[in-house]
Amino acid sequence: MAAQSILWIVHRDGTGRRQLTKLGAPRGGHTKPSVSPARGIVTFTVSHGHISSEVWTAPLAGGPGTKVSNGASAHFSGDGKAVYWIGRTIEGNDALLRVAVDERGIPSGTPQTLQTFAGNFIGDFSVARDGTAVLWLYRGLANLWSVDSPTRGVAQPVAITADDVRNTQPR
Question: Between the CA of residue 101 and those of 19, 56, 107, 136, 143, what are the distances in Å?
């Protein structure tokens, strides 16, 4: 079983510390929080060790969370109306996914696969305010990539860097 951990909220000066999530609700390690820029919700990863992970949302004011999907490393869109995360295809490849969420962080609609990456893993990513997701890939391609969000149609990723030599695997 994975280690249990929870998320906390605290002011920059160290005051106002309070628990955001509760131990065991949901079970697993609560990590990688991302606060919505426009709403009072947070998205986070619930880790079950090397077995699996899930993306959840919860209100910043407290209250029960909502499972969004299996996956990890969630981020909000610039307007806070969608959550992006790293998931897996049925073939086992990493994919960047997106789903709209309401003001409570509850998914509305079916998750959309923006891009899959055969033979590569998404290390982490960031979503720009204009909807462009910037990805970092490793294992095979150690480059930065950009892909447009589905609001403008799914586009092919564009390589921002061209590092064909770097290998992040130990020798």
Answer: 23, 11, 4, 25, 30
